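worker-3 :: picked Bcr/CflA family efflux MFS transporter
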Amino acid sequence: MTRRQPVVVILILGILTTISPFSIDMYLPGFPAIAKSLNTTIDQVQLSLTAYLIGISFGQLLYGPLLDRYGRKMPLYAGLVLYLTASLGCALTTSIETLIMMRLLQALGGCVGLVAAQALVRDLFPVTQTAQVLSLLVLVMAVSPMIAPTVGGYTTVALGWHSIFLILAAITALILVAIYFVLPDGKKADPSLSLRPKAVLSSFLTVLKQPQFLTYTLVAGIATSAPFAYIAGSPDVFMNLYHVSEQEYGWIFAFLAISIIAPTQLNHILLKHFRNEQIIFVTLSYQSIVGLLMVWGTWAGWFGPYGLIAVLFLFLTGQGLTGPNASALSLAPFSRHAGSAAALMGSFRMGIGALVSAAVSVFHNNTAIPMVGTMTVCVVSGLAIYLTGNRVIQYRNRKFGLEESLSEVTL
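worker-3 :: tokens ->
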């Protein structure tokens, strides 16, 4: 790549990863309008979010082997065309059941962006730069929660909630053009990789047998699922409990998204002085402390809307550090199976996200406790897994005489 090309490539990869955040965040302010239009309840509309997360989880498992077998671009084209078609279906729906089904199909198509972007980072950049590049992708992703709910709120009021999905379809069409003309091919097709179920499972098992992958995928998947609790619970907490408008909710969501941006840039500096695993440990410890204070303060009635926004801001700052570093450590051991590794990692993360979002609905009690409690459980569990898994990795490294740092092992 030329000197300028990496910047353009990172931008395109970042936009690819924003497909799902936009799909999740942009229609949140429209929940009340969707419920009224389709003669249903907000709880039923929330199921369309859960369906999307389920679709992402399973869809990524399909795309991993396809990206390894056919190269990166052909599966990208197929998935994005499916996403575009399903987005039009969402815009034209007249029932909540159809919306839920279209959201599932939308996720099955759009999730290709998450898997392909991470696999292409592994293809196009040296392993020593993976965490830095992933941090830049998180930066691009962090912009979408600032823009999407705000645009969604004003769009819902001005044009109706159906127009949100028309906008998503138009954005996807532009992404397809950029992929065709600008994005490098990445890893070529590998005909030796079979798509038979036995071969695909064997590829996944090869990835899962790597302790480094398993540990940091679990850490990333569970700890970084905390925002899904916030996403699922915040429309009810702010619009029903604190009675803010759709537009005000969009601005609150945008403000809290800023808490992710600064740490992603700080990560570049920290990586010059600390290892990925050290950053993860400190970040999860910090989030666990803030989370416990957030739960206690919410239960004790310390926070009004502004107090809750402030403590959520402090909590979410950790997401911009844990995610990129844990993802980099998960993918570092792989070259040939990078697509399958990225698929498993993304699938697990979104699967946990679906469970987390469902948990917020199940424990709904007209307070913010289900939301903040679930967020805290995620990071505390992630910290516990990190401490246990890191000991296993260190023991394995000593046993086989490997380097102390978690360096690349090509699989």
